[in-house]
Amino acid sequence: MRAAGIGVTGVHNQIASQSGGYDRVPFTKRKLYNQIAKQRRELKCDVQTAIDYLKGMRKKDPLMFWRHQANENGKLEHLFWADGLSQKNYEVFGDIVAFDATYGKNKYQYPFVMFSGMNNHNQTTVFGSAVIANETEETYVWLLQTFLEAMKGICPTSVITDGHLSMKNAISSVFPRAHHKLCAWHLLQNATRNIKIPSFTQEFKKCMLMDYEVGAFNRKWEATLTKFGLQDNEWVKERFEDRKMWAVAHIRGTCFAGFWTTSRCESLHSEIKKFIHARYNLTEFLQHFHRCLDFMRFREVEADLASVVGKAPLETPFKQLEKSASSLYTPEVFDKFRSIIVRAFLVYVSSRKLTGTFEIFTVAKFRTTAKEWHITFYRPTPELKCCCQRMESMGLPCEHIVAVMVILGMNEIPTTLIHHRWTKRARDDIEAYATDVTGNWTSVKMALHTVILDSCREMCKLAADSNENFRTTREVVTTHTARLKSNKLVNDMEDVNVDDDNYVPLTNPDRAFRNTGGASTSGTKCTRRRKTTCSVCKTPGHNKSSCRLKTRIHEMAHEVYGGDAEVDDDDQPPYSRGDFCNLNGM
Q1: C-alpha of 389 from chain center
Q2: How would you class 560 by CB atoms within 10 Å of its CB: exposed for 0-12, middle for 13-18, buried for 19 or more?
Q3: Which residues, in sequence order, are CB contacts of 191 under 8 Å at separation 6+?
Q4: Distance, CA of 325 to CA of 396 (rounded, Å)
Q5: In the chain, is it the N or the C terminus that has fewer CB atoms within a 10 Å radius of its CB?
Q6: Residue whose C-alpha is closest to residue 127's, from 161, 81, 158
Q7: Are the C-beta atoms of 553 and 544 separated by less than 8 Å?
């Protein structure tokens, strides 16, 4: 029950229910707490047990990856890990990565960092996780380099963070080609906190999210600063220097798949709270985290089943195009594309120009001629590109391209406009690996058994033909077996890095004691401890044992009952405590 995440009270209640009553349970809840604490104390080294747990996972998952870093005394500082399914997910959906740190997830109060992205069902998927001792730039550089090593050197296209300075410097150092985007929600919060003008926050939001051209954005920014008199504000100047990290006018064409905030990280942290508590040690943390990961992956399997079973209803007049999209995209992505088809009714093709190689279509909104979009069409491919670049940013054709497709009579989406990450078959390789690791192991053993039998028959045939061929075959098999054993030994000893002369055994980090209401976090205010309130006089600042009012009560009782009388502290005096609450000087 504890391994399933049930608390001590829940365990005690369940055992009492199965036993027929609390009087039939041979232990109290306090003894259950003591037994759990005893088991934790019996761990020789929590860190080493956690490393052994990851090593045990490699026996089932050959791609299991982890790295750890300790100081000169052997005390663990950082630990990163990513299993095989996380790495396979990154190969398909790793073009956009978001990561953020959360706190209070282990008894050492080490920050917990997760690298996450979005799969083809518009669900959050985890690429890797880490426990770090601090949030310095050196720590994030080590973390990103380790993440890059786990993902076989494949860098993400876009990275989204909350704008932490250490993260920003580390990303520019390790991922120099990745586009670093700042969280829109954090930017709006900072604008409210630093400028303290609500109307400016609204104008700043327009500058950030509206689809302006670069020149129009510059004019809008200057007009906003002039309106509120913020030309000399330092925070505004810094934001303008970082405009390529948050303004749509400057980041168009870079794929973010609809990622504008780190809210997915926040929702992922809230989901993990259901499985992990601050009192867990590192080993328990890993066990319950992977339980949460299994739950998330089960939902992905359910989404895969839902995308195969059933058909989405067709709601627009473009039945053939809508039917083609429903068979291609997952239901969640198809809903987005159908809304794009609906918006395509609001635009029309105003002109068409034929050049030597391309056809150029001009698209405008009905009753609005101030804004136009130009779409180029290359017929041999066929390939369509729009100046709004939403296809490159979202991975889905925009309404302007859809309008041109209708004019051209296209009933299916061209392959040049299909982003593999949104299709139903995007997870085929992931599912195949999951089947090999956790699926039908019996069939794998039978296949290996058949191969071995065929090899033995071939060897016997060679032996019958010639003793020399038999000896040659035996040497080849022996050499191959020795190589496999050597690789297994290397895998078992990987990440240990033990030197006989300089090896320092791993030790646990110092346990953090929460004296001020929790671990401090950047940008948040720690909750202060509530002042002690006396239960007798209801006055804060002291307790019952040091209450002056209680001392006065004892003196009065001494006068009434005499010097030899004893008054029990738990007995209620013959007068109400409320009569003395308003007395002064007692």
Answers
A1: 28
A2: exposed
A3: 200, 201, 204, 239
A4: 11
A5: N
A6: 81
A7: no
Phi, psi dihedral angles at 44 (to 5 degrees): -65, -45
The domain limits of the chain are 8-41, 44-183+261-309+500-511, 184-258, 319-428, 530-586
| pLDDT for 81 | 94
DSSP state of 235: H
- pLDDT (tens digit per residue) in 393-405: 888 999 999 999 9
How far apart CA 516 and CA 361 sit, in angstroms, is 64
Here the tokens at position 35 are 């037994």
**CA atoms of 550 and 536, how far apart (whole Å):** 7
Question: Dihedral of the CA atoms 189, 193, 197, 198 (nearest 10)?
Answer: 30
Phi, psi of 154 (to 5 degrees): -85, 115
Residue in the structure block whose two tokens are 């359910």: 302
- For the domain bounded by 44-183+261-309+500-511, which CATH number is listed? 3.30.420.10
| 3-class DSSP string for 425-436 | HHHHHHHHHHHH
Give the separation between CA 201 and CA 189, rounded to whole angstroms: 9
Main-chain dihedrals φ then ψ at residue 358, nearest 5 degrees: -115, 165
Neighbours of 339 (CB within 10 A): 13
CA distance linking residue 257 with residue 276, whole number of Å: 30
Burial of 465 (0-12, 13-18, 19+ CB in 10 A): exposed
Query: Residue 505 gets which letter from DSSP?
Result: -
- Encoded tokens for 184: 């829109």
Burial class (CB in 10 A: 0-12, 13-18, 19+), 403: buried
Q: Tokens standing for 155?
A: 């860098």
3-state per-residue secondary structure call for 163-216: CCHHHHHHHHHHCCCCEEEECHHHHHHHHHHHHCCHHHHHHHHHHHHCCCCHHH
The count of other CB atoms within 10 Å of the CB of residue 245 is: 18
What pLDDT, in 10s, does the model give residues 88-111? Answer: 999 999 999 988 888 777 788 888
Shortest CA distance to 117 belongs to which of 98, 143, 138, 137?
98
Please check whether residue 185 is in contact with residue 204, taking contact to mean a CB–CB distance below 8 angstroms: no
**How far is the C-alpha of 343 from the C-alpha of 366, rounded, in Å?**
11
Task: Locate 228 and state its tokens.
Answer: 């509120």
Rg (CA), the chain: 33
Contacts of 578-585 spanning 24+ positions with Cβ under 8 A: 580/537, 580/549, 580/552, 580/553, 581/537, 581/538, 581/549, 583/549
Task: Locate 140 and state its tokens.
Answer: 């994030």
Is the sign of the CA dihedral 555, 557, 560, 564 positive or negative? negative
User: By C-alpha distance, which of 388, 289, 303, 213 is closest to 57?
Assistant: 289
Q: What angle do CA 36, 38, 42 make, to 5 degrees?
A: 120
Tokens of 69: 């870093």
Written as six digits, the tokens of 52 are: 């052994």
CA–CA dist 103, 101 (Å, integer): 7
Mapped to the 3 state alphabet, what secondary structure does 315-345 carry? CCCCHHHHHHHHHHECHHHHHHHHHHHHHHC
Per residue in 142-187, pLDDT (tens digit) is 999 999 999 999 999 999 988 888 999 999 999 998 999 888 888 8
Quote the crossing angle between the two packed helices 441-465 and 467-493, to the nearest 10°: 150
- Stretches where the chain sits below pLDDT 50 are 440-449, 486-502, 515-528, 563-586
Q: Amino acid letter at 506?
A: L
